[in-house]
Specification:
two-stranded parallel sheet, Rossmann fold, about 40% helix, about 325 residues, 12 strands, binds guanosine-5'-diphosphate-beta-L-fucopyranose, alpha/beta
Length: about 325
């Protein structure tokens, strides 16, 4: 079945200022959607049921792409589990409840590849969910995102809501978080090599051993996949979104160094956690539906570094 998306109907993108939300808004504008609804945290606190319900009653979105969430890298997740659990639980509980009560036609909820068990077989298929223990460094965030995924399935079972969920792999791109304490690895390495260039430093410190492998999808590709799924996917099962290729952190560091500042050599800080050894997504189902990513990793790093230079006065 295909949902014929009416570009004139109101479509709400939560988290529109963030890495994912801003990419989704850019894509919707490119596609000619003329009624994109967004709300700042000051306009509506997504952790406040009454505020969200009042906003939905007033704005009456027909579609929702739910990209809002409290996100962060391995260190932020390991340091603030209460915040990552509570904020993300509330953010999807309020939005899904109001989406149901105010008869949203279709909602797409975005999770994360960290929902899967730490040591499950690779590449990770969607049906590996809840088959083993989670990675401790991001267990709180993962539990919150798993309940979001399951909530979409329960609304479908109990009320027939067309709420779908997708699990993206690690993302990067414009409007990423470049703060060295809270960010993910790719933007952190861009900033670290950039600062090494400014200081003419000979080394850049990489956390952990460099042996974990990660898969990286450019956020513009994710936004394209979101529109694709909003139009073409109506199933209860969650669906992975990724590139199907991963890279050791050590090779990522070399690649970022080549793009930003080849003179600095990576050195490894073993006191920092490695986190999940690997979390490569199986994207067979998405490929069978007809979607493929476009942005190659090196191109994506180059364009993200250019965005960083144009927008981030580090
Ligand atoms: O991207 P990252 O912070 O999160 O770390 P995860 C990925 C790998 O990069 C880890 C290493 O093995 C880090 O030790 N790394 C090396 C660094 N240098 C750095 C650095 O300077 N900064 C950072 N941040 N990492 C996240 C979850 O896990 O994945 C989130 O915590 C979310 O909840 C996200 O699911 C997609 O990929 O390990």
């Amino acid at each position: 079945m295909q949902t014929v998306l009416d570009r004139n109907e109101p479509i709400y993108v939560s988290g529109h200022r963030g890495l994912v939300g801003s990419a989704v808004v850019r894509r919707l504008e490119q596609e000619g959607f003329g009624n994109i609804l967004t709300a700042t945290r000051e306009e509506v606190d997504l952790c406040d049921f009454r505020a969200v319900d009042h906003w939905f009653a007033e704005m009456r979105p027909k579609y929702v792409i739910h990209a809002a969430g409290k996100v962060g890298g391995i260190q932020a997740n390991a340091t603030f589990p209460v915040d990552f659990l509570f904020d993300n639980l509330m953010i999807h509980a309020t939005v899904l409840r109001s989406a149901h009560q105010h008869k949203v036609d279709k909602l797409l909820y975005l999770g994360s590849s960290c929902i899967y068990p730490r040591d499950c077989p690779q590449p990770i298929r969607e049906d590996y969910l809840l088959t083993g223990p989670l990675e401790p460094t991001n267990e709180a965030y993962s539990l919150a995102k798993i309940t979001g995924l399951k909530s979409c399935q329960f609304y479908r079972q109990q009320y027939g809501s067309n709420f779908i969920s997708a699990m993206p792999t690690n993302l990067y791109g414009p409007k990423d978080n470049f703060d060295l304490q809270g960010s993910h690895v790719l933007p952190a390495l861009i900033r670290k090599f950039h600062e090494a260039k400014l200081a003419e430093a000979s080394q850049v410190t990489i956390w952990g051993s460099g042996s974990p492998r990660r898969e990286f999808l450019h956020v513009d590709d994710l936004a394209d996949a979101c529109l694709f799924l909003l139009a073409k996917y109506d199933e209860e099962a969650t669906i992975n979104i990724g590139t199907g290729q991963d890279i050791p952190i050590a090779d990522l560091a070399k690649l970022v160094g080549e793009v930003v500042y080849p003179k600095a050599q990576p050195v490894y800080d073993a006191s920092k956690p490695d986190g999940t050894p690997r979390k490569l997504l199986d994207v067979t189902r998405l490929h069978k539906l007809g979607w493929q990513h476009k942005t190659k990793l090196r191109e994506g790093i180059e364009s993200t570094y250019q965005w960083f230079l144009d927008h981030y006065n580090a």
